[in-house]
Amino acid sequence: MEYFFYLIIFLIPYLAVSPWQKVMRIPAGLIYVGLVLVFVLMLLLERPERLRWKNISRVQLVVPLLIFFAVNLFSILRIIISKGMAALNANNLKEMGFLGFAVLFYWAVTVFVDNEERFMKSLKTFVICSSIASIYGITRLILFMVGSDYGLAQGWTVPRLLATAGESQVFGGFVISVLPLMIADVLFKNNIFEGPWNHFHMGILLLALIMTFSAGAWAGLVVAVIFLVLWFRYYSPKSIVSSALVVLVVTMGVFLIDRTIYPNYLEGFNSIVFKITGHAPAPEKFANKNAFEVLKQEMPQSTASRDQQYVESVFSKVERSWFRAALWNMFKSSPILGIGAGNFEALYNKYRPPGVPAPPYVPKPHNQYMEILAETGIIGMLAFIGIILNLFWYIFQCWPRLEPNKRRILVGLVACLLAVGVHGYAFGILVHLQVWLLLALTMSLLKLDPTTRTLSAIRGGLY
């Protein structure tokens, strides 16, 4: 059962990186759901008493998560009661199905990871599978840039790393769920891996994140690094400076190589600058923010001029501003209980800003917090805040009894959670299973018995 569990973790970036790209599609996603359900059944057959509510409620954070699930479910039931079954749509079922599955997954991880050896193996498996997926993405992107791989169709003039996801920002969100941990491992010299392997994993993940050109994920990493530096300054400022210089040199070297291979590559930074500042390079061309059809027609197909480089960025930024305005209108229409979990896509055209044309397809709203507020109202947001408060209160309670090595790993995991939290402003985070794994591993570390083997005694090889 133990190695079956590590296989489940290892497969996350390949079968479960995003529910609307992987988990909810046959057959890969359903295979992964089946593997997790089989593992849960194995846990219950091993110790049936785990099914008792008394034991379930003892698992840290499960009760706040179940409350959040119940609030989401009630937001849908309320709509059905008032408008009938015709108001139910497929997104309601997917939203609740994945949320329920994610809570079950969280419970299974926290129950199984009950000693330090399992914790370290789980952590290493998560890092290794992330690095392998990143290497795959980096390799394929370089092949695309040199013209050897024509199967990587993209809507951007500058190629962006997708790896095992369908969108670069999805994989960027995946990388920041583990990269800050490896940065902390290098800074704190925890040596989760022997020899140079911790530097290797950090370098690969950092390179993959840079090549995604995901502004939200970059912002998340910046906040995580600031948190780590503020914490780490009490240990060795010299190590911070030396590590920063190494990262800078390697990053600049990589970009110079990429620019040699693909001359227009560094233009991707201008897209990031535009998303932050809002200043397009050709204002006379893109000044009309409601020109939905014009932007869509000018989207680059294969080759494009320098100005067209920014069309995707302009369109993305403008569209997300429309999404935020629609979410706010949804919240104002039902501020207490929301419009119903999963109803953003179905009701977007009803609440979109005046003058904004109806799009042919409505994706996720790219703002996790406003999505919660709009779909489940103030009650749902309070339930979500309750999860965060419970998490940090438990960290505060456990901190005094943690040995130094555990504290340093905990700081790295919290940095990952901060990075993911920042990314949530620009993207969905609760719909990605690695976030739930990160949360479960954090809670598993906190509940470990301090009398068991220390982390320093079980470091080294993978298993």
From TrEMBL:
Transmembrane portions of the chain: 29-47, 59-81, 96-113, 125-148, 200-233, 239-257, 372-396, 408-439
Instruction: Report the residue ranges that make up the O-antigen ligase-related domain in this protein.
Output: 203-385
Task: Report the coiled-coil segments.
Answer: none
The UniProt keywords, alphabetically, are: Membrane, Transmembrane, Transmembrane helix
Please give the GO cellular component terms listed in this UniProt entry: membrane
Q: Which organism is it from?
A: Thermincola ferriacetica
Query: What InterPro entries does this protein map onto?
Result: O-antigen_ligase-rel_domated, WaaL-like
Family annotation (PANTHER family): LIPOPOLYSACCHARIDE BIOSYNTHESIS PROTEIN PA4999-RELATED, TEICHURONIC ACID BIOSYNTHESIS PROTEIN TUAE
- This protein is called O-antigen polymerase
Instruction: From the Swiss-Prot or TrEMBL record, state where the protein is found.
Output: Membrane
Topology relative to the lipid bilayer, per the entry, is: Multi-pass membrane protein
